[in-house]
């Protein structure tokens, strides 16, 4: 029964990743159909992120009132509505009507599942969980590519909505599997703390800023890696540079896969410290003025490997560090901090590199890596005595 429930949870996290890569892969064609500038994708993306932040902030209230499986099914349904809406959009303006369910469907399910896994499963399971998010994010560009080759971009959103609907049905049928944990007092969220209470706990605010810093660096790599190679490595083709955009993502998945096998033995804090040390080695390789693009390419992979365990480990520690009754609120706040960092800081880097040059990227990444580990270490010293309450 436990294995089946885990399979359902992993499937739900695949559904969380599926919508995230569609806009980027479909936008070149969507832009032409709508007759808008390429930069207008940013407004859609930021609107989705804004709704996701709201969803993450209300997640603790939802978790107190509803069971995790109910939140999962409802959130996937909202995402299906958003995807179907995008598929029928006949104008750019129509997209903004459907970003509401599109974004709201992500934040709450992300917070609810992370809280559930942090309370009931090991650090290894948490790392595997975030690997499966990557599976979903990797699948959707291929769905869009298939749609563009055989139909139109609309079908890419529609086919993804059909897959999401299938996952939602599986989650509905899995309700009996959740009953064992739901019957335990440990799963009772009715007395869990709210956001205001969580913010007053020592160590929470520096942890949130550290989480923001991590996601700022990660998202900057996602958006600007290809541009870094074009701007700093002479003679590299645009096709190869575009392919190099996946280096950091591949490193992340590899880092989380490795972490899943060693995290229970090493522990979350040690895993984060090792991860950021590995990330520093990768950033150094990117920074060094070595000939050719191979050292920088290896550097981005190593950077991704180092980043890999940080996100899941921070979230897995929430019940232990801040108390089980506070974990839902803390994780909801962490998700909101994550989306703020990933939404705005790549844009800030865009302005910075325009003024200084894109070669500044490894310095920018190093700044957020130092900020991440520095604030986490400060938070460890500020945290209240460990509690299981």
Automatic annotation (TrEMBL):
Domain of life: Bacteria
Transmembrane regions: 40-59, 71-104, 124-147, 159-178, 240-258, 270-288, 294-314, 326-349, 355-376
UniProt domain Major facilitator superfamily (MFS) profile: residue ranges: 5-384
UniProt main location, coarse: membrane
SUPFAM superfamilies xref list: MFS general substrate transporter
UniProt-annotated location(s): Cell membrane
PROSITE patterns (UniProt xref): MFS (PS50850)
Entry GO MF terms: transmembrane transporter activity
Assigned keywords, A-Z: Membrane, Transmembrane, Transmembrane helix, Transport
GO cellular component term of the entry, any: plasma membrane
Membrane topology per record: Multi-pass membrane protein
Pfam family of the protein (one): MFS_1
Heme keyword on record: no
Family note: Belongs to the major facilitator superfamily.
Protein name as annotated: Fucose permease
Organism this protein belongs to: Ruminococcus albus
Lineage, top ranks: Bacteria, Bacillati, Bacillota, Clostridia, Eubacteriales
């Amino acid at each position: 029964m436990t294995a089946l429930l885990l399979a359902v949870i992993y499937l739900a996290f695949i559904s969380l990743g599926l919508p995230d890569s569609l806009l980027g892969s479909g936008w070149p064609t969507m832009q032409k159909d709508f007759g808008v500038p390429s930069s207008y994708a940013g407004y859609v993306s930021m609107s989705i992120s804004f709704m996701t932040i709201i969803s993450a902030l209300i997640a603790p209230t939802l978790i107190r009132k509803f069971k995790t499986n109910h939140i999962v099914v409802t959130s996937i349904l909202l995402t299906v509505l958003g995807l179907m809406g995008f598929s029928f959009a006949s104008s750019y303006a129509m997209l903004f009507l459907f970003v509401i369910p599109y974004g709201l469907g992500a934040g709450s399910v992300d917070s609810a599942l992370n809280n559930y896994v942090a309370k009931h499963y090991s650090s290894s399971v948490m790392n595997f969980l975030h690997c499966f998010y990557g599976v979903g994010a990797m699948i959707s560009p291929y769905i869009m590519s298939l749609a563009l080759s055989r139909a139109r971009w609309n079908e890419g959103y529609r086919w993804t909505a059909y897959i999401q609907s299938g996952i939602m049905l599986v989650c509905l049928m899995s309700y009996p599997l959740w009953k064992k944990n739901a019957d335990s007092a440990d799963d009772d969220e009715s007395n869990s703390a709210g956001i205001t209470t969580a913010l007053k706990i020592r160590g929470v605010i520096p942890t949130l800023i550290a989480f923001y810093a991590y996601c700022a660096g990660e998202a900057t790599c996602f958006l600007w890696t290809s541009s870094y190679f074009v701007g700093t490595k002479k003679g590299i083709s645009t096709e190869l540079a575009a392919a190099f955009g996946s280096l950091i993502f591949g490193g992340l998945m590899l880092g989380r896969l490795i972490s899943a096998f060693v995290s229970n033995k090493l522990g979350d804090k040690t895993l984060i410290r090792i991860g950021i040390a590995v990330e520093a080695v990768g950033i150094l390789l990117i920074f060094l003025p070595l000939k050719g693009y191979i050292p920088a390419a290896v550097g981005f992979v190593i950077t991704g490997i180092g980043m890999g365990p940080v996100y899941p480990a921070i979230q897995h520690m929430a019940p232990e560090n801040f108390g089980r009754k506070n974990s839902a609120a803390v994780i909801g706040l962490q998700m909101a901090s994550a989306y703020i960092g990933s939404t705005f800081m790549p844009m800030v880097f865009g302005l910075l590199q325009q003024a200084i040059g894109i070669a500044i990227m490894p310095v920018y990444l190093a700044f957020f890596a130092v900020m991440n580990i520095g604030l986490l270490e400060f938070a460890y010293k500020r945290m209240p005595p460990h509690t299981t309450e």
